TrEMBL record:
<keyword id="KW-0915">Sodium</keyword>
<keyword id="KW-0472">Membrane</keyword>
<keyword id="KW-0735">Signal-anchor</keyword>
<keyword id="KW-0406">Ion transport</keyword>
<keyword id="KW-0812">Transmembrane</keyword>
<dbReference type="InterPro" id="IPR000402">
    <property type="entry name" value="Na/K_ATPase_sub_beta"/>
</dbReference>
<keyword id="KW-0630">Potassium</keyword>
<dbReference type="GO" id="GO:0001671">
    <property type="term" value="F:ATPase activator activity"/>
</dbReference>
<keyword id="KW-0740">Sodium/potassium transport</keyword>
<keyword id="KW-0633">Potassium transport</keyword>
<dbReference type="GO" id="GO:0005890">
    <property type="term" value="C:sodium:potassium-exchanging ATPase complex"/>
</dbReference>
<dbReference type="Pfam" id="PF00287">
    <property type="entry name" value="Na_K-ATPase"/>
</dbReference>
<keyword id="KW-1003">Cell membrane</keyword>
<comment type="function">
    <text>This is the non-catalytic component of the active enzyme, which catalyzes the hydrolysis of ATP coupled with the exchange of Na(+) and K(+) ions across the plasma membrane.</text>
</comment>
<dbReference type="InterPro" id="IPR038702">
    <property type="entry name" value="Na/K_ATPase_sub_beta_sf"/>
</dbReference>
<dbReference type="GO" id="GO:1990573">
    <property type="term" value="P:potassium ion import across plasma membrane"/>
</dbReference>
<keyword id="KW-0739">Sodium transport</keyword>
Amino acid sequence: MVTPTGLILLFYLVFYLFLAGMFALTMYIMLLTLDDYKPTWQDRLVTPGMMIRPKGDQLEITFSVSETESWDNLVQNLNTFLSPYNDSHQAQTNDNCPADQYFIQEDSGEVRNNPKRSCQFNRTMLEECSGVSDRFYGYNKGQPCILIKLNRVINMLPGKDGQSPYVTCGAKREDSDKIGPLVYYPPNGTFNLMYYPYYGKKAQVNYTQPLVAVKFLNASMNTDINVECKINSNTLATGSERDKFAGRVSFKLRINDK
Ligand SMILES: *[C@@H]1O[C@H](CO)[C@@H](O)[C@H](O)[C@H]1NC(C)=O
Ligand SMILES: *[C@@H]1O[C@H](CO)[C@@H](O)[C@H](O)[C@H]1NC(C)=O
Ligand SMILES: *[C@@H]1O[C@H](CO)[C@@H](O)[C@H](O)[C@H]1NC(C)=O
Ligand SMILES: *[C@@H]1O[C@H](CO)[C@@H](O)[C@H](O)[C@H]1NC(C)=O
Ligand SMILES: *[C@@H]1O[C@H](CO)[C@@H](O)[C@H](O)[C@H]1NC(C)=O
């Protein structure tokens, strides 16, 4: 004999089981449509942000030339970051690609062309900022190197007509007389087209993100300098209203002489 309360409980039990089933089925179908190698949803025409190394909690590089301890951790940070860029390591893992053109490795229809190869970015391409010819990256002479990278965006094509995007740095207006001359490595501060498009971590296992180093040759001492670096590209827009961090990075540099 089933009581009315029993019937209500039974009804809810069946009802909730049905809901759970619906949920599981929907989830299952969702997951089936996802592709391991490509993001399903991606905002087109995004300009990625940029980041600097060495990087602390804030975007601030402060040190005293004469106090080794004040820049030693910055140098260590760069050493660690650059170790996968060692020429020997790059020669083992990546290809020496033709410059100034995209390294396209499309899948042909349903046939996957994975894993995909990546191009060599040799540490020595950073010359004076490689930590090889000058193992203190200029910090001991008050001529620090700062590395800049462009955040990865899958399938992004950052230039057209064989023109690689390049980085330029400058001081915020009030500091323009303090920044002094800069030198960029690789020459002209370019992110060569051969490092693009990026196909994602899973498809391109040995991908090495290209870098640009900027060296401050005669920045004023004992004063804060607000520096801004930005990407110059004929396909990417910088600093739109919507995202002021797109294609640019700002940081504070202070070099003390004692
Ligand atoms: C990379 O090269 C630097 C200097 O040339 C060296 O000190 C470091 O041990 C190397 N790292 C690896 C992982 O081989
Ligand atoms: C990188 O260094 C390796 C080893 O020295 C060399 O064989 C290779 O040609 C270099 N690649 C580039 C792109 O300069
Ligand atoms: C990745 O690097 C390893 C060596 O570290 C190499 O054996 C392998 O072939 C590389 N894979 C691709 C897809 O480049
Ligand atoms: C740097 O830019 C100048 C002027 O745009 C150009 O003539 C030169 O070939 C470039 N150098 C490299 C290494 O790309
Ligand atoms: C470096 O900058 C100072 C001014 O801040 C200037 O007096 C000096 O001549 C510059 N040195 C060189 C080598 O350009």
